[in-house]
Amino acid sequence: MVLAGFLIAPAGVALGQGIARCRPSPDGANPCPRPLLLPREQPLSAMAQIGRSMFFDKQLSGNGRLACASCHDPAHHYGPSADRAVFLGGDRLDQQGRRAIPSLTYLDRIPGFSIGPDLSADDAPPPAIVPPPPGDAAHAPKSAINNAASATNLVPQGGLFWDGRADSLQQQVLGPLYDHAEMAATPATVLRRIQHAPYTAQLQLLLGPGGSSDPQQLLSEAQFALARFQIENRDFHPYSSKFDAWFQGKARFTPLEREGYLLFNDPAKGNCAACHVDTASKEGLPPVFTDHQYEALGAPRNRELLANRDPAYYDLGVCDRVPDGRQTLAPYCGMFATPSLRNSATRHVFFHNGVFHTLRQVVDFYVLRDIEPGRFYPRGADGGVRAYDDLPPDDVKNLDRTDAPFGGRPGDKAALDGHERDAIVTFLGTLTDR
């Protein structure tokens, strides 16, 4: 199997066999180019055109001052334009959102939420939803070059938002729309607007007499229109980065980009591709740089967030996606979605709580979390480091400690030195769409 420029051992083959027989050339070229199945530029359907109008319509919000595009700025790859950890919304635009705003790009290939075998290179969900394993279930490590060992892990995967609580773009629409700290609308607010908007006549024409007179059907079709806009508009998934050109043999890495790419795929170094998968699908779809799974990484508590000033408050991700999740999904408390790394070099905030503001800070955290915890976590009254301070003590066991570069003890040598971390950040810049 080709992993971008690498020929990778098939499942079940031990590490070290059949690895790196097709490395990037010294001049940065890809000696194993592969064509990609890219989305075609096509006119938007009538429904998607309505969705485009709605995406920029501030009158859909409770105060008439926020549109979807206010948080998901097209000029910033449909992510936030500001560097605040979370967005300010609500009726008076003074309420903090619960989590950092994710980009809306590359969401069209995320499957619905499920818990099942680790099928990290597959866009499809696992074959069946299964109960969570016992809290002490073993977790085999994931490797960027061999996923045979981790394939038996039962993991949460798929779904939209940081906790996977929506299974489709159509469902996802309602989250920010009705959140009192975001767009702060109500079904009545939205219905009034879509009954008296510049696009109302076109929406009613598509629905016909029966549908346009049914308020619930009108709301449902409005959701569908927003989803169609995101699916049909190639701006949400352009695959136009330097990496995409390199993958197809049309560009060359600089020496530092090449070095960063090799470290990104090295299981003893960055091991980034274990979760941020850079393989094309069997059909030739470009890599989206995520396995669509969830991890408990132990990001430091962000005390810029008002909710986090309450010591009893914890945002536990997957196990907060349903009311009884802290009991029924306990093995996954503290896990959040692994986002795509595409366009990550242009982002201003990282992790679900927006605690970091540069990619270098993120890479430093991955490499140094366990060996230099005092660099990221506060100290208690006794002077000791309060590691993993944004997880309740009972949920620290859910942390990923097995997948490199995590692990180790204070004082151990870092898996990546400073120059190598810079190289990975430089490589990530090749994932920015043009």
UniProtKB/TrEMBL annotation:
Q: Where in the cell is it found?
A: Cell envelope
Keywords for this entry?
Answer: Heme, Iron, Metal-binding, Oxidoreductase, Peroxidase, Signal
Q: Where is the Cytochrome c domain?
A: 255-432
Q: What is its main location?
A: other
Q: Which GO terms describe its molecular function?
A: peroxidase activity
Q: Which Pfam families match?
A: CCP_MauG
Q: Which InterPro entries match?
A: Cyt_c-like_dom, Cyt_c-like_dom_sf, Cytochrome_c_Peroxidase/MauG, Di-haem_cyt_c_peroxidsae
Q: Does the keyword Protease apply?
A: no
This chain belongs to which protein, by name? Cytochrome-c peroxidase
Q: Which organism is it from?
A: Rhizosaccharibacter radicis
